[in-house]
Design brief:
Layout: E1 2-5, E2 12-16, E3 30-31, E4 48-49, H1 51-57, H2 73-90, H3 94-121
Parallel strand pairs: 2-4
Antiparallel strand pairs: 1-2, 1-3
């Protein structure tokens, strides 16, 4: 399973088994390097995801939700580090502030997840 991008709309994503035809039947998709476990993630650029393909992922049409694996901790760390470096390079500008806010938001989400995980194991 792969995440592919619609050639007619920037940051509009579909799911495909073969990289050519989407689960909802569209063809002529552009390849991405997005890991499958990022499906549904929305950042400041406003990514959109095909509702029909999403129905497959949610099991409404028989595709297992086990396809979505947790994001590796290294990926989160590397991404957060890159945001902090970007914030440093932009300095005290709106871009720098947004990058730093994004990094802080991700760290807050990780902390909340860890608290939830610890609470569930007690």
């Amino acid at each position: 399973m792969k995440i592919v991008e619609s050639p007619t709309s920037v940051w509009f994503y579909h799911l495909s088994k073969d990289g050519e035809t989407t689960l909802c039947g569209k063809t002529g998709m552009m390849q991405t390097q997005l890991p499958l476990n990022t499906w549904g993630f929305r950042s400041h650029i406003g990514e959109k995801y095909c509702k029909d393909c999403n129905n497959f992922v949610n099991g409404q049409k028989g595709v297992s939700t086990r396809l979505l694996r947790p994001i590796p901790q290294e990926w989160i760390r590397d991404y957060t580090d890159s945001l902090v470096k970007a914030a440093e390079s932009f300095g005290n500008t709106p871009m720098g502030q947004r990058a730093l806010e994004r990094a802080e938001h991700i760290m807050d989400m990780v902390e909340a997840f860890r608290k939830k995980e610890v609470g569930a194991s007690e």
